[in-house]
Amino acid sequence: MKCIISSTCIIIDYRKDEPKFLIVKRSCKGSFPNMWTVPGGKFEKKDFVNKAKRTSIHWYRVIEDSLKREIREEIGVEINNPEFLTSMVYMKNNIPNVILSFWVEEYYDNIKLNNELVDYKWVTLKEAKNYNLIEGIYDELYLLKNGLR
Predict the structure, then answer these.
(1) N or C: which end of the chain has fewer CB within 10 A?
(2) What does the DSSP 8-state code read for residue 2?
(3) pLDDT tens digit string along 120-149?
């Protein structure tokens, strides 16, 4: 069965009394137009095919490397050591879309959005409820905030 694999990253800033999460707003084009989400994107063959294998047939950390590339492309920053949070699947055009969700504890004030995104905010969990988030994103923020990872 063919499927699409994507990864997302919740970036959380614990420097304040109340943790803040980075959310980004999608443009009016593409999937989930004008909705708020966390940065990420699709896994691509280019994320591993030109890299050295760790065994005679395996590449390792390919999803993490793909996620780092997507974060770099979408918001112009480098993330370090993303940690796995959860996974989910949804169907689009009868094709399973697998989303692997990661998180990092970092803060950036030098965010540069690409043309797929139109805005970003650092929000508390309570503030996140005021944004038109893609379904499931709030639940993941809640998991992190409440230590349920």
Answers:
(1) N
(2) -
(3) 999 999 999 999 999 999 999 999 888 765
92: domain CATH number is 3.90.79.10
Contact indicator for 102, 8 with CB cutoff of 8 Å: yes
| Structural domains in the chain (count) | 1
- Domain containing 106 equals 4-145
* Alpha helix stretches (DSSP H) within the chain: 62-75, 125-128, 137-145
What's the pTM? 0.90
CA distance 109 to 140: 23
What is the Cα–Cα distance from 76 to 96, expressed in whole angstroms? 29
d(CA 92, CA 90): 7
Length of the chain: 149
Helix (H) or strand (E) holding 9: strand 4-13
Q: Count Cβ atoms below 10 Å from residue 47 Cβ, excluding itself.
A: 20
Q: Which two tokens stand for residue 86?
A: 């959860």
